[in-house]
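Question thread 4412

I'm putting together a teaching handout and wanted feedback from people who do this every day. The idea is simple: show students a protein as raw sequence, then show them the structure tokens that encode its fold, then repeat with a second protein so they can compare. Below is the first pair exactly as I plan to print it.
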Amino acid sequence: MKVETEIARARSSREIRQQSVSERAQRGKAARVQVPFADHAGWSPPSQRVEPLTLLEEQATSRLPELVPIRYGRMSVSPFSYFRGAALPMAADLASTPVSDISVQLCGDAHMSNFGVFGSPERHLVFDVNDFDETAPGPWEWDVKRLAASLEIAGRENDYSQKTRTQIVRQAVRSYRETMRELASVPMMSVWYAHLDVEEILPRFSALLDPKKTPNVWKAINKARAHDSHQAFDKLCFEQDGETKIVHDPPLIVPVEYFIAGIESGLAEEALDQIMRQYSATLEPDLRHLLAQHEYVHMARKVVGVGSVGTDAWIALFVSLEDDSPLFLQVKEAQASVLERFTTASAFSNHGERVVRGQRLMQAASDIFLGWLTFAWDGTARDYYFRQLRDWKGSVDVDGMTPAGMDVWGRMCGWTLARAHARTGDRVAVASYLGKSERFDNAVTEFAASYADQNQRDYDALLAAIASGRVVANTGI
């Protein structure tokens, strides 16, 4: 299935503005006739399904070969870890399912661990989506189904009963549906300002946030403020001959000098200047001024996450010219979204810009240092985006999460995803499609359970491939 192009999407946006609310609502009802709720229930692999491991191997060819075994090793830890790294196989599966043909800006990898708390520019803690490597326009249902499946898989991993898992998934989807319907009835400015502010103890969910019943959620919130550049500095840096350096901890952290040995220092400095000029040009003038108040100190390649392992990722340390306080920026390679082969090619020539633009569309408040560039470290041009390494960031630890904690986390994720979609697509049409009943909630809950079974089969296939030597996995890293 191919969804609409960027040009068609822009045209559709203009058409939405020209339509009345009742016409947009009718579009949603008409879509429901064409794709009834029952079409979203359950999952059966299509006869021509591409083997997930084949897709992962294909994806690995664009990644740094020495890091690919780490990716397989991390994915082999558990079915949920596999799911986190298998955004491409699930995108391929979702492309075979019916959709309402109403597009939004997708996260593209909306599993439960890709939501969390971080600091807004106003220095408030907010809850939002926090990973946009795969963001692209597409059917809103795909994000909802990936979120629902992640909750089901995580619930199984924590040995929740089937009844408990079903309740958690259904409540998350219900939160999405009810929030979308609520936002469809208010002005777009109200949608744009809507956010979950931890400073106000997430008022929508305060009744559910019991420190004794949801300890992991409280732990994530309370620890978030400690996750900043100062904490990163203490953890990742040391003094050597009066100079500050990032630690050497191969293969996870490797300082830049190990990659540029033999290159004249003048050429290395020129390359760094080029990087900073390109990146700074994507910032607003006031933020370029702020960045200029900091001096570059050191950088290192740093392996991150599960799904991103193998892409080129760096951390760069800067210090304030005024008081030597640290600023850590993360520089992550941005490849084509896993959604693009099933939707359409990105409108942006730089995938780093694709990530940044999608993040700013979907988030209520974004990192002030978001930017992008294209650069060739090893003769191969790659796209990158910049963000702060840690800015009061925190996500929940799925292992050992209480059922009550996962329930409230799922509802918060559902609310947040609906808010993000409402900002970028026809919220009236989506709300009309969803309706007032729980039939959509039930259908997606059924899908999540069926897809969790598929995920288990795919995970077992990965373990078999590792055992047979088809793929090499570096575990414990």
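The second pair follows. I'd like the answer to focus on this one:
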Amino acid sequence: MNWLTLHFSALRDTLRRLTRSPLSTVLTAMAVGVAITLPVGLYLAVKNIEELAGGLPTRPEISVFISEQASTAQRKALEARLSSHSGLSRLHLVTSEEALRHLNSQGLTDLTAGLDKNPLPDAWVATPNTSMPAEMEALRSELAKLPGVESVLADSTWAARLQAILRIGHTLTALLAGLFALALVAIASNVIRAQILARQEEIVVSRLIGATDRFIRRPFLYYGAFQGCIGGLAALAFVWALVWLLTSPVHQLASLYGSPFSLTGPNLHESLLIAGGATLFSWLGAWLAVSRTLRQID
């Protein structure tokens, strides 16, 4: 009960200090929110590009289109040959009906409505075990010579380029997140440093009458954690405001290309991660600032 009482007292003192200076609290929260918004915005941009690209796999795919004149025996032989091929994996058949339904789901119903019959062929789609352009081309040429094959499409070039761009985006996101995490620790440390200077005499007196480091540190840690949490919520508000502002222009652009794509913001898991990360790093900045002050007092 004594432990709970001490924490409740520190929490109440923190809330009182936050509400006592609302302007300072809001400005600090905005600074933290802006710092978090930049890496979060870049992460969401990469995430939406991946969704727009249809969630490409880590390796490019190769499509083997079956000729309409292929006999049943040729189709079975082709399936057996592709299934046992050492250079292919994740083999699955996409029928012409499935391909047409997928095309219609992409907003191209007007294009296919006037057709007398389904022009799309059946196709085997597989993941090659290599992504090297020369090896992909050799594999494509080999498969194109098989009986019953109309054509072979290997998407290695554009898929590799897109994956390279996405890897750069993920790397930049990680770097920015690391840099702004350090900035968040510095911001929280400076804010708590100002709080410590304002209460330095109180801290010295508390040490003289036997207060432990944990007792002195506790309210400052709560203060830093609350500032970080408020900043994380501010960052989420900024991000959702950007998504709301860009939704209509992006939807208009996508509709010109016949795509149903729309922007998506952070989900619940990502939102909790953003708020929790801001709270954690602000708490860490507060801990560093208080620990340094206590060492100086000693």
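Top answer:
Good format. For the second protein you could add a caption like this: The beta strands are 62-66, 88-94, 123-128, 149-154. The two ends are 30 Å apart (CA to CA).
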